[in-house]
Amino acid sequence: MPDPGRRRLLGAGLFAVGVAAGAAARAAPAPLRPDWPAGATPADVEAAHAALQAWIAAFRAGDYPAQWRLTDPRLRRWTNLPRWRKAMRRAAHRNGGLLDVEVSGRAAVEARQLPCTEQGHCYRRDVPYVVFILRTRYGKAAPAQPEYAAMALSDEGWRFGGGTLLNRPLGETAVMLSETDEQRYSPGARRLERDAPGP
């Protein structure tokens, strides 16, 4: 006759394995587009461009909550709305307004084709990106040209996923942290959000 204590231990072990597997699946979801970038279509690029135009329009209108919502949720996790609003107001004042944006190039790319930030943070893998090379003109600022924006595909659709557009308003090139960086910086990020000023 099987030992009841052994059955309980085995059951507990299988339950723990199941929980761990479920957590791993949640932590590493399947890529939205495993065929990317080879399978990208002109419609994909146009949809990403439309999202970028909406993001820019929200900034120009001073509607920073709308602009924040048009930013990828993986980037919003590290820059909450009060911090985002403060950064965009500061950028608008420093730059003197965004007068012109001209797209000089666009392409579907993967993370390894995008430059890492000044602090060595690189783009998150397994995310479809469309990069836009931009010639920009501001009322006061004259940042190095060209600037760029990386649009990222998420469960919400195409969203701003990083770049130098708006003259690096977050202090360095914006980027969605890799899984490794998320694990390294999550405690500090939570502390930054807690200490962020109100609206």
Quick summary of this structure?
The protein is α+β, with helices and mostly antiparallel strands and about 200 residues long. It has 6 helices and 5 strands; from the N terminus they run αααααβββββα.
What this model shows, in words?
The chain folds into 2 domains: 1-30; 34-195, Nuclear Transport Factor 2, Chain: A, CATH 3.10.450. Strand 3 (147-154) and strand 4 (157-163) form a beta hairpin. The protein is built from 6 helices and 5 strands; from the N terminus they run αααααβββββα. The protein has helices at 4-27, 42-60, 64-69, 73-76, 81-95, 179-195; strands at 98-109, 129-138, 147-154, 157-163, 174-175. A 5-stranded antiparallel β-sheet has the order 1-2-3-4-5. It is of the alpha+beta class and 199 residues long. The model is unreliable at 6-28 and 187-199 (pLDDT under 50).
Q: Low-confidence segments, ≥5 residues, pLDDT <50?
A: 6-28, 187-199
**How many structural domains does the protein architecture include?**
2
Radius of gyration: 21 Å
C-alpha termini separation: 67 Å
Which word captures the global form? globular
Question: What brief labels describe this structure?
Answer:
20% strand, 6 helices, 2 domains, alpha+beta, 199 residues, five-stranded antiparallel beta sheet, Nuclear Transport Factor 2, Chain: A
